[in-house]
Amino acid sequence: MNILITGGAGFIGSHVVRHFVNKYSNYHIYNLDALTYAGNLENLTDIVNAPNYTFIKGDIKDIPFVNVLFEKYRFDAVIHLAAESHVDRSITNPNAFIETNVLGTSNLLNAFIKLWKDNFEGKQFYHISTDEVYGSLGKTGLFTEETSYDPQSPYAASKAASDHMVRSFGNTFGMPYKISNCSNNYGPNQFPEKLIPLFIHNIQNGIELPVYGDGQYTRDWLYVTDHALAIDKIFHKGKNAETYNIGGLNEWTNIDLIHLLCKQLDEKLGKPEGTSEKLIRFVKDRAGHDKRYAIDASKIQAELNWGPQVTFEEGLSKTVDWYLQNSSWLKNVTSGAYQEYYKKMYGE
Ligand code: NAD
Ligand code: DAU
Q1: Boundaries of domain holding 133
Q2: Residue of 84, 131, 232, 251 with catalytic role
Q3: Which of 33, 59, 84, 132 is catalytic?
Q4: C-beta separation of 211 from 281 below 8 A
Q5: Which of 6, 120, 192, 302 is the most buried (most CB within 10 A)?
């Protein structure tokens, strides 16, 4: 089976690519990634020479390129992760999110059905989405697969639109598809614009920790390899045309999480307890900030026997260790040296 994984040089995508390449030698994994600021081939150095792995640099916004690629490799399945993924960037530049997340997804869907519309037997288009499509929760309640869409940020709206496009292709063209909506991921290789890696980087460098608003916003955190395992289960055993919610069963307010992170870093860096907390600063809130996300993961637990394997304390500790041991990775992505390198390697 030829499987296209898009966005495989990014944070979650690189863990998914590694998992599939190592576990399924009978599949050929094609990793299509534009290597935007968030894409980094250093995430995949351990599998770069695997015989069942091919990296393709390319942009899902480029229609002729996408069509030629699908005709050339005749992908049996697509696992689609490529996206603009950072909420703050969607507030400063919403159109970039429409172009990649909506139009880019539509380009992949068009190329996929062009190839298989006469016989979809054994084919599938699996779209990786987010819990942010459901909007924001109050103090109680959980997002289920039946929760109405109510996206609040341009990022969430663009992901909601891409989910709708995928379902519409299932309904209109009979295209086999699956969608999963996952909560906040954390772990190694996450670009340091997101809360956890940004704060690890800042603590290491003695930079202030900008906590948005009152810090009482709540997220449901899942270790990234547990997300990769869920994707494997849904890909192989999930039902056609179904949605699966994936979550960590692990809610933290931002400020409690930041206290735990500060404590772990003080211990690991050999600093007196309380040192890193002194860097905390409450700053202007994110515009339209969603108050709380929390997932009801009972469907995937019951149907596919999936549940998080990594506890938060353990996962956070492993994450901090990874960033401390991979300071050159962090330095390269924050200094821009990595992007300079890839411009030289691949051109603009
Ligand atoms: P990321 O920003 O780390 O990686 C995105 C990848 O997509 C990068 O490698 C980037 O180069 C690539 N990409 C971007 N635009 C592209 C384009 N036009 N053509 C080809 N490649 C392109 O993102 P992530 O956090 O790993 O998220 C991956 C997917 O999972 C996204 O679809 C996101 O919406 C979804 N998701 C993320 C989380 C999370 O907590 N990070 C949670 C739930 C769902
Ligand atoms: O819920 C899934 C989503 O989780 C994914 O779809 C997104 O791709 C991913 O980026 C993430 O979105 P969030 O906005 O929840 O993640 P972020 O790490 O940006 O922020 C987490 C929380 O921390 C949020 O309440 C905002 C807050 N925050 C974030 C940053 C970057 C701060 O207080 N200060 C910061 O500097």
Answers
A1: 2-189+221-249+292-310
A2: 131
A3: 132
A4: yes
A5: 6
When divided into structural domains, the chain yields a total of 1
Nearest ligand 1 atom to the CA of 85 is 2
Ligand 1 and 100: CB distance under 6 A: yes
Q: Which residues contact 345 (CB under 8 A, 6 or more apart)?
A: none
Nearest ligand 2 atom to alpha carbon 211: 33
274 located within any domain: no
| Ligand 1 pocket residue status of 89, Cβ below 6 Å | no
Residue 120 clears pLDDT 60, i.e. is over it:
yes
Alpha-carbon dihedral sign for residues 151, 156, 158, 162: negative
CB 5 within 8 A of CB 30: yes
What pTM was estimated for this model as a whole?
0.97
CATH number at residue 6: 3.40.50.720
State the Cα–Cα distance between residues 138 and 146, nearest whole angstrom.
Answer: 17
The conformation of residue 194, written as its DSSP 8-state character, comes to S
CB-ligand 2 contact for 212 (6 Å cutoff)? yes
Burial 95-126 (b: 16+ CB within 10 A, else e): ebbbbbbbbbbbbbbbbbbebbeeebeebbbb
* Percent above pLDDT 90 for the chain: 95
Q: Which one from 30, 126, 134, 155 is the annotated catalytic residue?
A: 155
Distance CA 316, CA 46 (A): 23
The answer as to whether 144 is a domain residue is yes
pLDDT tens, position by position, 21-62: 999 999 999 999 999 999 999 999 999 999 999 999 999 999
Contacts for 235 with CB less than 8 Å, ≥ 6 apart: 77, 79, 124, 126, 178
Residue 340 forms part of a structural domain: no
User: How far, in Å, is the centroid of ligand 2 from the Cα of 205?
Assistant: 21
Read off the tokens for 254: 């931002």
Does 177 participate in catalysis according to the annotation? no
Cβ neighbour number for residue 77 with a 10 Å cutoff: 18
Q: How far apart are CA 235 and CA 230, in angstroms?
A: 8
What whole-number distance in Å separates Cα of residue 286 and Cα of residue 284? 7
Q: Nearest 5°: phi and psi at 12?
A: -70, -40
